[in-house]
Amino acid sequence: MVKLLIFDLDGVLYTGDEPVPFAVESVNALRRRGFTVRFLTNNSSRTRAFYADKLQDMGFQASEDEMMSSASAARRLLLERSPGGARVFVIGEEGLYEELGPEFRVVGPDELETADYVVVGFDREFNYDKLADGLEALLAGAEFIATNLDATYPMPGGKLLPGGGSIVAALATAAGREPVVTGKPNPAGIRALMADAGAAPEETLLIGDRPSTDMATARNAGTLSCLVLTGVASPADALALPDVLKPDFIINDLRELASLDCLKEGGAALSRENHEAGKES
Questions:
Q1: Could you read off the pLDDT of 129-151 as tens digits, one per residue?
Q2: pLDDT for the residue 151
Q3: Catalytic status, residue 17
């Protein structure tokens, strides 16, 4: 029986600054039923505290301790590799700098050859100079860390904007190197949330909107997966997924989540096996 629900943020709970329809009441109702709720985002631009406050302002119950971001996952990885601290060149926004914490000294363009790591996340001020500086640090021997590979992120009205993965791809192309990715589909973040909640993989359901990260993360961690069609993936996308990315369940919006078989109730939610039939009828 599932006891832990882990929600992606963008496209699942909100788009931009607006909550996804039916998300607030659905998630809060599941809490009242006794499910443990956690949050897992690939967005590195803000701190966990910011995301918790954003959710609270929308009406969700949420706290910083329930949140894992790709930026906080990057900090965890760096602490594992360099527990005594390290010198880091960062391409990213305020949230990434803050989440890395005081153990890691950020180096500027005049110290690139001393960097132990280049850490890259979402950066709306990314430019050619930052790309060149990142390349110089990598060529000098720094390790390449990326918070995520999401090429885009959803906005209201179905609009997509370039995501952190677009920036990572530019630097990877220039350097001819692939990074270690700390966010989804790396299962480290979801495993940390499961450990904190005392939940086994078979007791955990990950709800997301992007198959290449969310569904891949669930598979990598051995958890159940649910694709919700309020974000990046369309119904046609969902039905065309390769077997390795197919979710255990597909739902149109979060109202259908409560009726999933894995939550001990039958109902309107469609598994991937019957979703196509439902669309054709």
A1: 999 999 999 999 999 999 999 99
A2: 92
A3: no
From 8, 133, 150, 248, the catalytic residue = 8
Active-site choice (10, 116, 150, 248): 10
In a domain, 29, yes or no: yes
Residues 133 and 216 in one domain: no
DSSP output for 132-174: HHHHHHHHTT-EEEES----EEE-GGG-EEE-HHHHHHHHHHH
Judge if 15 and 104 occupy the same domain: no
Q: Is the pTM of this model over 0.70?
A: yes
- Identify the CATH number of the domain in which residue 85 sits: 3.40.50.1000
Active site residue 8: yes
Last residue of a domain, one of 153, 181, 209: 181
8-state DSSP, 215: I
pLDDT of 275 reads 44
